[in-house]
Amino acid sequence: MTRTESLTEPLDTSPDAESRWSGPDPAIDGIDGHDPDRAGTGGHDPDRAAPPANAGPIARRVAAARRTIVEPTAGPDARQEAALVLVEHVDRLEAMLRHTKDMITVLDENGLVMFSNAAAGRLTGHGEEANTRNALDFIHPDDAQAAAETFDRCVDKPGSFASSEIRIRHADDSWHYVDAYAENCLDGPVTGVVVSMRDVCDRRAGQETLQKANDAMLSFVAVASHDLRSPVAVIRGLAGTLASDWSALPDSERLDIAQMVARASERMGRLVENLLMISRLDSGVSAGRPRPVPLRDAIDLAVRHMEDRDSVRVRVPDEVVVMVDPEHLERMLTNYLHNAVNHGRAPVRVEATRAGALVELRVIDSGAGVPEEFVPRLFERFFRADAQEVRGTGLGLSIVRDLARAAGGDAWYEPGQGGGCFALSLPDAQ
Question: In sequence order, which residues have a C-beta less than 8 Å from that of residue 237 and are 6 or more positions away?
Answer without folding.
Answer: none
